[in-house]
Specification:
This protein is of the alpha/beta class. The protein is built from 21 helices and 19 strands. Helix content is 47%, strand content 19%.
């Protein structure tokens, strides 16, 4: 059935390409330069050239579609991705072919990122963390039993439960940057920093000057920024850091002809100070995250500060990313995993996922949280493009009587992603999911709260890109106090939102429905 569909698309493409090239060459026949060469639109010379070129380009384009379509089908991709790529190749044969070669090939991702892998056993000589908390008294009181997630991350993602932690939720940019800058100022041994976006603006320069000052004071500062997210960062910014002794590397820089790397981005935001304090969450580095950007006057986001055992695993993630990005290995020294003084029992697991892993761990954490929730599932996300499994989990939970609520932005920062997200609203609303449109500004937090007892907070959006293409990290927090703290923010965000009603949404203009449908076709590739 797939091959029949491919050949049908090829025949249709050939027909429309022939018409297009014939029209194009007819227009060229009126160009004065060609007329001066006595190549007139009605001359036999021009008709011969037109005939040859039309059929040449039609055959060439059809052959490219045959080649790429065959590769796509034989790769046994997700059917939605296959249809999306075939549609692009049909409508935009030449551009689609180039775009696929650079970004669409289903390459052996683990082979490319093999230098990121570090054996967890290397860490066991430095820290001592139990592998099994399923019978721990501190977890028995939870209504939600997290054995499945604990097992998933431990035995598949090499991320055991950590027991002794402190977690501080940081709401919005001002509180987050204040805590981060204050902790960075106290660094004595090393600073490890990853960010998807770094801007050369007031906030970006404040971070830069602090890192320069610490490097000159003898602190070892290492920094990774993403080549796509920070593509507008001027080289002078990086040069100043390097001159001061800061080691800066760009993760997968966008350099022709290696544009295929554009598909796999480091979307993590991690800061580690002396191996004892860690930060992770939704905020990059820039004025826009303080509501000082050109597009939004208010930016709603959430970060968190971690102390204790969980910081060791943020450190592991940094070391893996550093190994790949810098093409050099940092030895597993005790200085990166020092003893801490945290005695409070607060259970945290660090979930990392990306193209270097066998499974989409954060996606599976989200799926497990939704499908086993008993009372409530509260989600905040800037982008809502679920795959089939997450979509089914959300609808099934709501139909089963679980109170499922999702807060999304009212205004877009990426238009196509925004329209694609809205295409899922109708079926979610019909299943009983409540969707709220945030009115106060742009909401960028990435949070899931279940039964007032568990939560995830990190860098991963509720979309296919975060699940499958980006390197992401989230903290899974098994603590009712933290969950209630996040839920308080969620309730406030609902008050700053408007609930989307099914009847009103179904009466939106046809033009919006058309945009949503087209964007949804492209959603597996966004």
């Amino acid at each position: 059935m797939k091959l029949k569909g491919v050949f049908l698309l090829i025949l249709l493409s050939g027909f429309f390409l022939g018409l297009y090239y014939h029209y194009l060459l007819e227009q060229l026949s009126g160009i004065p330069f060609l007329q001066t060469l006595s190549i007139q639109g009605n001359s036999p010379y021009w008709r011969a050239i037109s005939y040859i070129l039309t059929h040449f380009f039609t055959i060439l384009s059809s052959l490219s579609i045959i080649l790429v379509s065959s590769i796509i089908v034989l790769e046994n991709r997700n059917p939605a991705k296959t249809v999306a790529w075939l549609l692009i190749l049909t409508i935009f044969p030449v551009i689609g072919f180039i775009f696929y070669i650079f970004t669409g090939r289903n390459v052996r991702k683990k082979r490319r990122y093999k230098y990121k892998l570090i054996d967890l056993n290397d860490l066991q000589g430095l820290i001592h963390i139990s592998y099994d908390f399923r019978n721990d008294d501190g977890l028995k009181d939870l209504l939600y039993k997290p054995e499945r997630i604990i097992h998933l991350l431990l035995y598949n993602a090499s991320s055991p439960m950590t027991q002794y932690n402190r977690v501080k939720v940081l709401t919005n940019g001002e509180e987050t940057y204040g805590a981060m800058l204050g902790s960075l100022e106290k660094a004595k041994d090393h600073i490890h920093f990853i960010s998807f976006i770094v801007r050369d603006d007031q906030v970006g320069r404040e971070f830069k000057q602090l890192l320069i000052r610490k490097a000159k004071a003898g602190v070892k500062v290492r920094m990774i920024i993403d080549g796509l997210g920070s593509r507008s960062l001027p080289s002078s910014y990086l040069d100043e850091l390097k001159e001061a002794g800061v080691e800066v590397y760009i993760f997968s820089p966008i350099i022709f002809p290696y544009l295929r790397k554009v598909n796999y981005r480091n979307h993590r935001k991690i800061t580690i100070i002396d191996g004892k304090v860690g930060f992770v969450g939704g905020l990059n580095v820039g004025d826009e995250y303080l509501g000082k950007g050109e597009q939004f006057s208010f930016w709603r986001d959430t970060h968190m500060m971690l102390e204790g055992d969980s910081v060791y695993f943020l450190q592991m993630i940094f070391l893996m990313d550093w190994r790949f990005t810098a093409q050099s290995e940092l030895s597993m020294e005790k200085r990166y995993f020092p003893r801490h003084e945290v005695k409070e029992q607060l259970y945290v697991q660090i979930a990392a996922s990306g193209p270097d892993s066998d499974w989409e761990y954060i996606q599976k954490v989200y799926f497990s949280l939704i499908t086993t929730a008993r009372r409530t599932v509260y989600i905040t996300t800037p982008y809502l493009i679920p795959d089939d499994s997450i979509l089914m989990a959300l609808k099934t939970a709501a139909l089963s009587g679980v109170d499922v609520r999702i807060i999304v932005p009212e205004e877009p920062d990426h238009l196509i992603v925004f329209w694609a997200s809205r295409s899922y609203y109708t079926e979610l609303l019909e299943a009983g999911v409540q969707i709220y449109s945030y009115q106060k500004g742009f909401i960028h937090a990435k949070i899931v709260i279940v039964d007032q007892e568990m939560a995830t907070l990190g860098t991963a959006n509720f979309d296919i890109r975060s699940f499958q293409y980006n390197f992401e990290v989230s903290g899974v927090i098994y603590d009712s106090d933290v969950a209630k703290r996040l839920e308080d923010d969620f309730v406030q965000d609902m008050m700053d939102s408007v609930e989307i009603k099914l009847h009103d949404f179904n009466n939106r203009p046809f033009s919006q429905k058309a945009k949503e449908s087209i964007a949804r076709l492209m959603s597996p590739l966004l």
